[in-house]
Amino acid sequence: MRLSHALVVARMLLAFFGRRVLSVGALRLRSVRLAALGTAVVLLVSLTAVARQFLLPYAADLEVWDLLFSTSTVSLVLWVMVAFIFVKVLFLSSDGVLELTYQLPLTNRERSVAFLLFEAAITLGVALATAVPVMVSAVLLVGPSAVGQILTSMLLPIVVAYLALSLIHVAATRLLSAMRTRPVADLLALLGIFALIVVYAGRMTDLMWHMTDPAASGALVWPTAIGWLAQRAGLGAALAAVLVVCAVLTVATVHVMPSRHLGTAKYLDLRLPRRVAAHLTPYDWCLLRSQHTFIGTVVGLALFGYLLAETELNPLWSLCTLTIGGLYLFSATAPLRAMTGQRRPAWRIYLLSLRPQLLLVGAVGTPALLLVGSPPPRPRGGSSGSPCSGSSAPSCCTRRCTSSCSGGWRRCGSSSWSGRGGGCPSPRSGR
After folding, report:
1. What span, in angstroms and rounded, lies between the C-alpha atoms of 255 and 242?
2. Across the chain, which distance is largest between two alpha carbons, in Å?
3. Which positions ≥6 away from 417 have C-beta within 8 Å?
4. At a CB cut-off of 8 Å and minimum separation 6, what does 1 contact?
5. Which of 372, 398, 415 is a domain's end point?
6. Transmembrane region positions (predicted)?
7. For residue 313, what is the DSSP state?
8. Distance separating alpha carbons of residues 361 and 297, to the nearest angstrom
9. Region 197-209 average pLDDT
10. What integer pLDDT is reported at residue 243 of this predicted model?
11. Among 57, 192, 377, 379, which one has the highest count of C-beta atoms within 10 angstroms of its own C-beta?
C-alpha cells in the first residue's frame, strides 16, 4: 500500500467536501461566507475570554489545573465518540464521494485508507474545536509549562480515542459482514458505537467522583492514563508509549479493514402486514425503510430506556431522534416526482412528506407515552401512606421515583439505600 497516494486522495476529498458545503444555498455568496467565518471567530474568542476570566483566580493553583486537565480528558473522550458517530452517519452513503476516486490509479485498500483519513480529519477537527478555549486559556494563564499537560491530557487522548474507535468500528463491520448482514453491517456497527457512548456517558459521573475523592488521590482513572503516565515516568516516556499504541492501532485498523469499500443499503427490507402495507404511499415507504429512520428509531428507543431508568429528564425528549429520517425525505423522493412528470403544489408535497413522519411518531410515541404515564407498582403489604416511604421505598423506587416522593425522574439505585431510614434517595447519597 502506498501511503502517499492515500494522503493525496484524502486531501482531494477534503477539498471536494469543502467546496460542496460552500456551494449550498446562501453560502455561495462571498459575503455570507465571510459573515459565517467572522461569527465563528467571534464565538471562539468569546468562549476563550470567558474561560480565561473564570480560571484567572486559579492561575497559581497547580492542583486545580491538574483536576481541570483530568476532567477535560474524560469529557473529551465523550466528545470524540459523539463526533465519530456523527461523521460516520453523515457519510453513511458515501458511494457518491468515492466515485471521484474510481478513475485514479489506486488499490481498493488505498481508497479505503484515504477515506478513513478524510473522516479522521473531520472528526478530530470537531473534537479539537471543543477544547480550544481551555487550551488557549491554560497557555495564557500558566505559561509554556502547560503545553506538556495540554499534549498529554487533551491532544494525545483525542488521537488515541479516535484510533481505538476506528479499530472497533472496522472490526465490528468486518465481523458483521461475515455473518450475512453485509447490507446493514455498517448500521449495526454504528449502533454498537452508540451503545459504547451510552455506557461511557453513564460512567462519567463516577469517573469524576473518583478523581475528586481524596482517598483515591493518585489512582489511575483509565481515560487519563496518558497524563498519569507522564506524571510518573516523564513526558518522554508517555510520548513513546503513545507512539507505540498509535502505531499498533493504525496497523491493526489497516489490516482488519476490508480490501474494498462495503456499501450500505439505503433502504431496509421492511415487511409489514398486507392490510397495513396496502394503505401506505411511496412517500411512506421511503421514510419507513430509510437507513436514517432505522438509526434514529433505535437510538431514540435506547435513549428512552436510559432516561426512563437512570436520569431525571423526561424520557419523551429522546423521541426527537425519530425526525432524523424526515431531514432526507424531500431529496430522497425527488425521483418519484420526476417519474410522474406532473407538477404538484407545494402544500400537497408537504402533506405527503408529513404523513409518514406522523405515522412513525404515533407508532413509537404512543406506547412510550403510555409507559411514561403508567402509575408505579404498589408495594406489597405496604401502608396507605406515601409510596416511597419506610421499608417499601426500595421496592417502589428501584426504577423511578414519583412526584409524591421527589417531584421528578430520578435514579434510585439500591446501593443508595444503605443507612437510610426512608424517603426518596439522592442520586449521590453515600458519596
Report:
1. 20
2. 78
3. 393, 394, 425
4. 107, 109, 110, 113, 254
5. 372
6. 34-55, 67-92, 113-142, 154-172, 184-202, 233-257, 292-309, 315-336
7. S
8. 10
9. 83
10. 93
11. 379
Q: Is 290 helix (H, G, I), strand (E, B) or coil?
A: strand
CA dist 133 and 112 (Å) reads: 34
Q: Are 300 and 322 in contact (CB under 8 A)?
A: yes
Same domain membership, residue 293 and residue 244: no
246 and 289 housed in the same domain? no
Distance CA 124, CA 126 (A): 5
Residue after which a domain boundary falls, among 348, 372, 396: 372
Is residue 249 located within the same domain as residue 291? no
Residue 276 located in a structural domain: no
161 and 40 housed in the same domain: yes
Give residue for cell 473564570. 54
Same domain, 203 and 301: no
Instruction: Compute the CA torsion angle 325, 331, 332, 334 (nearest 10 deg).
Output: 150
pLDDT tens per residue across span 250-285:
889 888 877 666 666 677 777 888 888 888 888 888
Q: Quick one: average pLDDT of 214-219?
A: 60
**CB of 356 within 8 A of CB of 329?**
yes
Q: Which amino acid, one-letter code, is at 397?
A: C
Is 267 strand, coil or helix? strand
pLDDT computed for residue 233 by the predictor? 87
- Tell me the three state secondary structure of residue 302: helix
159 and 306 housed in the same domain: no
What is the C-alpha to C-alpha distance for residues 99 and 20, in angstroms, rounded to an integer?
15
Look-up of cell digits 488521590:
217
Q: Are residues 296 and 238 in the same domain?
A: no
Distance CA 234, CA 227 (A): 9
pLDDT at 392 over 70: no
Domains: count for the chain: 2
HSE-CB for 414 with a 13 A CA cutoff: 5
Considering the domain boundaries, does residue 269 fall inside one? Answer: no
27 in the same domain as 153: yes
User: Residue 47: which domain range?
Assistant: 3-256
Residue 383 maps to a domain: no
Say what angle helices 225-233 and 156-178 make with each other, to 10 degrees.
130
Tell me which residue of 427, 70, 30, 49 sits closest to 224, measured CA to CA: 70
Per the document, the length of the chain is: 431
Under a CB-based contact definition with an 8 Å cutoff, are residues 356 and 287 in contact? yes
